[in-house]
């Protein structure tokens, strides 16, 4: 289920000073969007598992970058949530 | 009359620009030589206008407004705004072609398509990376066409093939003498921001390459839909290759090269469709 406001928050972080705002003023940024308490908590705790089904994958990619995950770390974090079917598919 | 003189496709992974300095030397060499070859072929056709299809990557559109197809009809467009794309073009803004863009829009509306349109777009990395790596001294006029490939539901491969045929007819009904190259950018397989991120599905990539070489449009319509359901989300961008394929009448596929490229997270491919004289 796509959550409009958490996607909007991440979309807006693409603007000027996004990384700085997210790194140093996260609570203030979140307060500008009517996200649910569960999403607020997930954003504050980098709880990717909760955010994953709610966020567009390309925005999730950006979210991980702006949260300080490099490519290897992003792949490692996201892979925690792979299904057995996905693992089989990736292994051919 | 305007004439389509070439049809091409090329990958557009952001890491090609974002991580350029950190890529392995052999990766940079591969990218340089293959995109140079793409550029050599495109420039040899002396295009007046490039009609470039790509997906927008959350630069021009958001969830409150996502057109399935959208045509840039302005006389000028913004250069890529992503930080990693800054300074890659000599031109501050990139030229559009309002005449041809507007004509394609009119033609589409009269032929059962209902695209959105914009009088000024930001050319994001999807279009910007192939243009940058092709090494234009000055980028020719561009008619950017955005195809929604980032937020489902997406247009079907069947519809993209039909769009490509429409683009060919639209260009060739434009009264001004223009030489037009059409491009589709993106792909091949990749997986971005999802649980399988980093997966390069070589089996899918080789199947797509073979499909463009030999399959009928009916086979592409049926098979690609099934293939896309079981590969990474970036595979959706093969729809842009379908458009380039249909522009060429479904014939003449010539792979410039392909390689799985984990550093850029994609199966990297470039191709030309040789048009019948």
Tell me the total number of β-strands of chain A: 0
Assign the structural class of chain B, choosing from mainly alpha, mainly beta, alpha/beta, alpha+beta, or little secondary structure. Answer: alpha/beta
What's the number of helices of chain A?
A: 8
Biggest sheet layout of chain A: none
Rg of chain B, nearest Å: 17 Å
Count of β-strands of chain B: 10
Q: What does this 3D model show about the protein?
A:
The complex is a heterodimer of chains A (92) and B (277). With 92 residues, chain A is an all-alpha fold. Helix content of chain A is 66%, strand content 0%. Chain A has helices at 4-13, 18-24, 26-31, 37-44, 48-51, 57-66, 71-79, 84-90. In chain A, helix 1 packs across helix 6. The mean pLDDT of chain A is 96. The longest helix of chain B is centred in the first third of the chain and has 20 residues, at 25-44. In chain B, helix 5 crosses helix 8 (238-247). Chain B is globular and about 45 Å long. The model of chain B has no long low-confidence stretch (mean pLDDT 97). Chain B starts with a strand and ends with a strand. Helix content of chain B is 35%, strand content 21%. Chain B is of the alpha/beta class and 277 residues long. Classes of the chains: A mainly alpha (92), B alpha/beta (277). The A-B interface holds A 2, 4, 7-8, 11, 14, 52, 55-64, 71, 74-75, 78-79, 81-83, 86, 89-90, 92 and B 15, 57-59, 62-64, 150-151, 192-199, 201, 203, 230, 233, 265.
Short description:
The complex is a heterodimer of chains A (92) and B (277). Chain A is an all-alpha fold and 92 residues long.
Quick tags:
heterodimer, A: 92 residues, mainly alpha, 8 helices, globular, B: 277 residues, alpha/beta, 8-stranded mixed beta sheet, two-stranded antiparallel ribbon
What is the element layout, followed by pairings?
The complex is a heterodimer of chains A (92) and B (277).
Chain A: H1 4-13, H2 18-24, H3 26-31, H4 37-44, H5 48-51, H6 57-66, H7 71-79, H8 84-90
Helix pairs in contact in A: 1-6
Chain B: E1 3-10, H1 15-18, H2 25-44, E2 49-54, E3 69-72, E4 76-78, E5 93-95, H3 98-110, E6 116-118, H4 125-134, E7 141-147, H5 157-171, E8 179-185, H6 202-214, H7 217-228, H8 238-247, E9 253-261, E10 266-273
């Amino acid at each position: 289920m796509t959550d409009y406001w958490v996607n909007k928050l991440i979309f807006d972080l693409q603007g000027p000073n996004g990384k700085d705002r997210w790194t140093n003023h996260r609570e203030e940024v979140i307060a500008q969007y009517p996200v649910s308490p569960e999403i607020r908590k997930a954003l504050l705790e980098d709880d990717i598992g909760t955010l994953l089904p709610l966020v567009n994958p390309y925005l999730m990619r950006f979210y991980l970058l702006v949260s300080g995950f490099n490519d290897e770390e992003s792949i490692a974090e996201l892979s925690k949530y792979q299904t057995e079917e996905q693992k089989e598919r990736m292994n051919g | 009359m305007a004439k389509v003189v070439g049809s091409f496709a090329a990958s557009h992974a952001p890491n090609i620009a974002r991580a350029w300095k950190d890529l392995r030397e052999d990766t940079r060499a591969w990218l340089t030589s293959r995109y140079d070859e793409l550029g050599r072929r495109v420039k040899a056709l002396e295009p007046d206008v490039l009609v470039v299809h790509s997906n927008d990557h959350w630069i021009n559109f958001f969830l409150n407004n996502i057109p399935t197809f959208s045509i840039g009809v302005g006389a000028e467009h913004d250069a890529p705004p992503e930080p990693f794309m800054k300074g890659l073009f000599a031109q501050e803004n990139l030229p559009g072609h309002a005449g041809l863009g507007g004509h394609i829009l009119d033609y589409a509306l009269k032929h059962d398509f209902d695209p959105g349109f914009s009088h000024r777009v930001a050319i994001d990395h999807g279009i910007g990376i192939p243009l940058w790596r092709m090494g234009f001294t000055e980028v020719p006029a561009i008619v950017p066409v955005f195809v929604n490939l980032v937020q489902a539901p997406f247009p079907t491969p069947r519809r993209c093939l039909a769009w490509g045929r429409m683009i060919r007819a639209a260009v060739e009904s434009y009264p001004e003498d223009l030489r037009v190259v059409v491009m589709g950018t993106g792909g091949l397989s990749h997986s971005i921001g999802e649980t399988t991120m980093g997966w390069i599905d070589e089996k899918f990539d080789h199947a797509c390459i073979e499909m463009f070489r030999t399959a009928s449009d009916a086979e592409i319509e049926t098979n690609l839909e099934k293939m896309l359901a079981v590969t990474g989300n970036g595979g959706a961008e093969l729809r842009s290759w379908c458009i380039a394929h249909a522009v060429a009448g479904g014939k003449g596929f010539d792979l410039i090269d392909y390689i799985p490229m984990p550093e850029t997270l994609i199966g990297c491919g470039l191709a030309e469709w040789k048009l019948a004289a």
